[in-house]
Specification:
- 2 copies of one chain form a homodimer.
- Chain A is 35% helix and 27% strand.
- By secondary structure, the first copy, chain A, is an alpha/beta fold.
- Chain A folds into 2 domains: 148 residues, NAD(P)-binding Rossmann-like Domain (Rossmann fold), CATH 3.40.50.720; 191 residues, 2-Layer Sandwich (Dihydrodipicolinate Reductase, domain 2).
- In chain A, helix 4 links the parallel strand 4 and strand 5.
- In chain A, helix 4 runs parallel beside helix 5 and helix 8 crosses helix 10.
- Chains A and B meet through helix 1, strand 7, strand 10, strand 11 and strand 12 of A and helix 1, strand 7, strand 10, strand 11 and strand 12 of B.
- Chains A, B: GO terms for molecular function: nucleotide binding.
- Chains A, B: InterPro entries: Gfo/Idh/MocA-like_OxRdtase_N, GFO_IDH_MocA-like_dom, NAD(P)-bd_dom_sf.
- Chains A, B: Belongs to the Gfo/Idh/MocA family.
Chain lengths: 359, 359
């Protein structure tokens, strides 16, 4: 039996939707069926700018996409402040939901989105693409290896990029009423996710934000840092910023091994992705060199990571649609933990003190 | 005129002295003239174990080395708690001083050592070898480049190694009466130095230690972490530990560039050392890959970094001895700043609160 093709609608002609519409085209089990924007003109321009096939329907509103019975799933790249309204409505219209990060302004909002998804039996997944790169599974193998990596002790994660003056004046990520979580919601989301990934999704007990975030004149975070502490003594630190050169680091240090990569969110090249590991590293007799030397692992990427994401999501949707499966809880669970930590970091920044994590 | 050869004595048959005695042999302007230990037997064994030339004098006490008029300079690898006594005495005996790190238990002690050096006109240098690797000067060029690197925004440094059970039971670095600063004094010294190096030796305004150091049963630090904040918003974090796999990272992020290396203290191999840089990094049009890609720089190491250290130190000693130069203040100034920050981190750990840095 041929693989069922999941029909996607996109609501919002955001820049990121260019990349995801290509991913929908590349994924073997997905197809782009509709694009909706606030005006027909905007939607048409987006479709022609991105070379959409003529059979992609063009809608002048988000509602029209959600009302189209020939759409199985929607990709929602709208500003964060609009997620609650449109994600809930999408779920109510029985559309499976691929939602851009940060998924909500806080976990209370996200829980409403999740409730709507659960009540309507639709799959939820957030748009954190690197999770789906084949490299990520290989890294997980290493981090799970009790001999080669051992017990996790420390993680450091960085995501920064040097936003230009236009971004810093006009991007939705610097507007309190749009992506009000700023660099924390955008770049920090990835750092927090990578830390949770390394910690096998065990939540930290406490977060301690550095007391010197950089804010713009409207109070939106442009740069901040934080430490996370676990009950067992594990520690993590991250730094996220719109104000320094593009950097995407994850370092995870265990009792027996170390993992390094410097392009965790978007691999340097699309066709393959690398990571470096050391295990049981030591020195030569005079302590003038390492042995063993670190190993570099190259993982071929048959499809771009965002196409892997669409494929995985579409597979889950197909299982629900054809086989009556329940939505996979793994993805919303990881999303919720990310948002929980993000909320705690925001609270620690706002209050200027450590914040204990609840569930 | 042939280069004057500086005659070294070593006081203390420490393990690290094996590497430094080889460096003295390799440096073209230095020679090993004497080794002194607490007993003649220990000194003789160290000399024969390390294949010392028969003309290296063997002494059964530290004093005998300091009293030998044919010794210009001493290398002191004794436990930190003995530094004050022996470094001051060495200076008083007009011996130039190459002192292992951490140089003292606190900056007040170190100031007494410095006063003795200044009063007696002897050169001071600490034993932080990586500072002298030719790679370090190349990294400084990059970090000083206003176009390629820009203004420093964030630094992360890690030095950890997995100490074995013998180390954790018996090494001087886990004994409160010997190297009482534990992992902070040993591994943390390097992290702090690398952060100051990246910050062009500008002292941070405040240090905030993570509130969960791991201590042994005698209260010695086995693992800890800290954040450092500067007046201008720069931030740095470090993690130092005896309890996880060997890791030696420095990441420095500027407005325009990023520097990475993972073997900053002891290069992977002795003959060359690498670092990676990115400048003005961005993405391709669809944000599916980086451009430009990072560059890897390989710096050949004509002499091991510790021999570079001995050569630089011996050069300064020769200038004093032959040309009546004043001791070079650059090295003790950097040392003192490192100790100042280390003291502040220790105070922050002890008090469980942020500590403002004085001068």
């Amino acid at each position: 039996m041929a693989d069922t093709i999941i029909r996607f609608g996109i609501i919002g002609a955001a820049d990121i939707a260019r990349k995801v519409s290509r991913a929908i085209a590349l994924a073997p089990n997905a197809t782009l069926s509709a694009i909706g924007s606030r005006s027909l003109e905007k939607a048409s321009k987006f479709a022609s700018d991105n070379g959409f096939s003529p059979h992609v329907k063009i809608y002048g509103s988000y509602e029209a996409v959600l009302d189209d019975p020939e759409i199985d799933a929607v990709y929602v790249p709208l500003p964060t402040s609009l997620h609650l309204r449109w994600a809930v409505l999408a779920a109510e219209k029985k559309k499976h939901l691929l939602l851009e990060k940060p998924v909500a302004l806080n976990v209370a909002e996200f829980d409403k989105i999740l409730e709507a998804c659960e009540a309507n039996g639709v799959q939820f997944m957030d748009g954190t693409m690197w999770m789906h790169n084949p490299r990520t599974a290989k890294m997980k193998e290493f981090l799970s290896d009790a001999d080669k990596f051992g017990q996790l002790k420390a993680v450091n994660s960085v995501f920064s990029f040097a936003a230009d003056s236009d971004f810093l004046a006009n991007d939705i990520r610097v507007k309190p009423d749009l992506d009000g979580l700023g660099a924390l919601g955008d770049a920090g989301w990835y750092c927090i996710r990578s830390i949770l990934f390394a910690a096998n999704y065990e939540l930290p007990k406490r977060v301690i934000a550095l007391p010197n975030p950089v804010l713009n004149e409207l109070g939106v975070i442009l740069s901040c840092g934080c430490s996370l502490l676990w009950e067992d003594g594990k520690v993590a630190t991250f730094h996220c910023s719109f104000l320094s050169n593009l950097t995407m680091d994850v370092t995870a240090i265990g009792t027996n091994g170390t993992l390094h990569l410097n392009d965790f969110i978007i691999p340097y090249v699309e066709k393959e992705a690398y990571f470096s590991t050391c295990s049981k590293s030591g020195f030569n007799d005079l302590v003038t060199g390492w042995q063993p030397l670190p190993s570099k692992h190259i993982v071929p990427t048959d499809l771009p990571q965002e196409a892997h994401m669409v494929r995985e999501f579409s597979h889950l949707v197909k299982e629900i649609k054809l086989n009556g499966s329940k939505p996979e809880k793994k993805w919303p669970t990881i999303t919720r933990k990310t948002q929980l930590v993000l909320d705690a970091v925001k609270a620690s920044l706002d209050r200027g003190e450590p914040v204990e994590l609840g569930q």
